[in-house]
Each structure stands twice: as structure tokens, then as C-alpha cells.
């Protein structure tokens, strides 16, 4: 395998790389720029030396350099943090449909939401907790009515509300009269 002449392959100016390194000092991209600078300045003669200097594996530095060769410094500095981890099962369209249906009051429980997604969009969660976590991540709260006791009399409650308002007004005016004395 032919030896790579890093100072010739790396087209950026050394001063530009130092500035770029300063710019990315507190981000996860800092070590990538530093690797390129070390190779360009010949402080490190190969990827193995650069990996040791940075505290990364040779394979990781090889991946970074491959991305640099593929698309230059722009490709090397492309952040892929959002690509990590497991992707959500629910599509944006299905999530929007679920929100709208919940606003209409047709869905009040997680099990109803699970059934809705399964039947309407073919999205199946293995456990209801997965759907509950999805709703919390998107700050979606289940829309349910205020609970009422089964023996509560609506007319009696309305009458209480009317008399309690009058009592409240009388007590406020009595308090105000006492304060004026």
C-alpha cells in the first residue's frame, strides 16, 4: 500500500486549520479538525500517531480521514449526532393525525392511541409504555374530561355555584367595610 503524503493531500492552509480548531474547541468536532491539523503540520506522520495523540482508535481516525477525502473539510465537519440512536416508529403524518384525533376528543387513553395508530397507520408498539414515552417526548397530553361522581346532581351543583358566588361577594364587601372603619 502506498504511503499517503498528508501535507499534500490536505488542501487547507495550516493557519486556517488552527482557526477552525479554535472555532470548534468546545464541540464534538474539535478532535476531527485537530487530527487534520496534526497531519498537515507533520506533528504526526500517520493516522496511527494521530490516533495516539488524540486518544482515539486508529479505526476512528481512519473513518474521519475517509470522510475528509470524500468531501473535504465540509464533509468532515458534518455533524451526525441526530442520526444516532433508535428512530421513532411513528411518522410525522401519523403523529399529526393522532394529535388532531385527540383534539376532537376521540382518544382519551394510551391504549386508545395505541389502537388508533395500529389500525389507521399500521404502527405497532410492543408495549404501551413506548407510546406513553412518545407522547411525553412530544409534550402531548391526553385530553380527558374532568371526572364527575356518578351520583352527583348537576342541578344541585349549579345552584351551589350561584349561591356561593353571592356569599363570596357579601364576605368581600363586609371585609371592605371593616377595613374602612
SSE layout and pairing:
Blueprint: H1 6-9, H2 14-23, H3 30-40, H4 47-54, H5 58-76, H6 92-103, H7 110-121, H8 128-137, H9 154-180
Helix pairs in contact: 2-3, 3-4, 3-5, 4-5
Question: What's the short version?
Answer:
By secondary structure, this protein is mainly α.
Can you describe what's shown?
- Among the domains are: about 5-85, no CATH class; about 90-135, no CATH class.
- It is an all-alpha fold and about 180 residues long.
- The chain has helices at about 5-10, 15-25, 30-40, 45-55, 60-75, 90-105, 110-120, 130-135, 155-180.
- The mean pLDDT is about 85.
- It contains nine helices and no strands.
- The chain is about 60% helix and about 0% strand.
- It is elongated and about 90 Å long.
The assigned structural class equals mainly alpha
Q: What distance lies between the first and last C-alpha atoms, to the nearest angstrom?
A: 102 Å
User: Hey, roughly how much beta strand do the residues contain?
Assistant: under 5%
Biggest sheet layout: none
Q: Overall pLDDT, averaged?
A: 86
Instruction: List how many beta strands DSSP finds.
Output: 0
SS field, number of helical segments: 9
Low-confidence parts, pLDDT < 50 over ≥5 residues? none
